[in-house]
Design goal:
Blueprint: E1 14-17, E2 20-23, H1 25-28, H2 36-50, H3 60-73, H4 79-88, H5 90-99, H6 111-128, E3 134-139, H7 145-158, H8 160-166, E4 167-173, H9 176-184, E5 186-188, H10 198-204, E6 205-208, E7 211-214, H11 216-219, E8 222-226, E9 240-243, H12 252-265, E10 271-274, E11 288-292, E12 297-300
Parallel strand pairs: 3-4, 3-9, 4-8, 9-10
Antiparallel strand pairs: 1-2, 5-7, 6-7, 10-12, 11-12
Helix pairs in contact: 2-4, 7-8
The chain binds S-adenosylmethionine (SAM).
Length: 301
């Protein structure tokens, strides 16, 4: 994963205060004591400055742990100093935002799901949308591994030209850094390409100095956009939605609100895929039928 440009700043671990050299929390190996109120102030400041909504839909313990780790790594002596830094430094705000989201992903993560998409789901959806392009939305797309895996499948199954004409893949994420990496389409062999066969590497990637660049045949099928999943009124239309390993960070009411909104934009028989460790909450089962419980594939009723 590419390190943010300002990361060097965080390595300054000794700060001068009132003429006394003091060790930062990182140097002392301490986690800052972060109260609920301080967390709220930090998140409010982040929301005001970035224009993104408050993180009150995320699971609190998870957010608290990440903010504390960020304070520790920032070189600050305490929470007050960190608040000041956050106010002054746009780079730190981006770094905090990045650290609040987990970007773990891989090409063809959960390979059996991609087999099911290729052999069952895509052929079925293509039949239903014969007279217009099929719209695919990859939510929480991280550095592009998931939408590009789909693009590779489509080129393999339908050919480059037809894939371009018949499919639209929109990939969204909240994090700018990871989206910039997605758009660059450069990857390291490990861990991103671990699940890519030698034949696929050969056909779809160009190697340079040990890194791999996705070729245009698949890259051009995907459009990236920054979007916060909590802004349910901004959702695009889609026939197939991949929302994997992203809902997991939201609390139950937020998950249900998001899933209701996804049900609203899917047409009847449209498909939603969740992550392997995610499940459909009971109130949503009137809106989604389970097509494949193992692969977490659901069909809009
Ligand atoms: C673990 S990754 C999932 C990547 C991919 N879907 C997969 O399953 O391999 C979770 C992604 O969700 C994104 N994310 C977190 N909160 C979000 C939000 N409110 N709106 C949009 N994306 C969000 C993170 O930035 C991160 O890239």
């Amino acid at each position: 994963m590419v390190q943010p440009a300002g990361e060097l700043y965080t390595n300054l671990t000794v700060c001068a205060m009132d003429g006394v050299l003091m060790e930062s929390l990182e140097e002392q190996g301490l986690q800052p004591e972060l109260t609920g109120e301080q967390l709220e102030v930090i998140l409010e400041l982040l929301a005001r400055q970035t224009g993104l909504p408050l993180f009150d839909a995320y699971k609190e313990s998870c957010v608290k742990r990440r903010v504390a780790a960020r304070i520790r790594r920032s070189g600050c002596l305490d929470v007050e100093q960190y608040l000041h830094l956050l106010q002054e430094d746009g780079g730190e705000r981006e770094r905090l935002l990045t650290s609040l989201s987990i970007h773990v992903s891989q090409f063809f993560r959960n390979p059996t799901l991609f087999e099911a998409l290729q052999t069952v789901v895509l052929p079925m959806l293509v039949q239903c949308t014969a007279d217009r392009p099929l719209r695919i939305w990859s939510i929480g797309c991280s550095a592009g591994e998931e939408p590009y895996s789909l693009a590779i499948l489509l080129v393999e199954a339908y050919g480059e030209q037809a894939a371009r004409e018949q499919f639209e893949i929109l990939a969204t994420d909240i994090d700018r850094t990871t989206l910039a990496q997605a758009e660059s389409a450069w990857y390291e062999a490990e861990p991103a390409l671990r699940g890519v066969s030698a034949a696929r590497r050969e056909r779809f990637f160009t190697e340079q100095d040990g890194s791999f660049k996705l070729r245009p045949a698949a890259q051009q099928l995907v459009k990236f956009r920054r979007m916060d999943l909590q802004l349910v009124d901004c959702y695009p239309q889609a026939d197939l939605i991949l929302c994997r390993n992203t809902l997991i960070y939201f609390n139950r009411p937020a998950q249900e609100k998001i899933l209701q909104a996804l049900a609203d934009i899917l047409p009847q028989d449209g498909i939603l895929v969740l992550g392997k460790s995610e499940s459909m909450p009971a109130p949503l089962r009137t809106r989604f039928a389970t097509l494949d419980p193992t692969e977490r594939i659901y069909s809009r009723r």
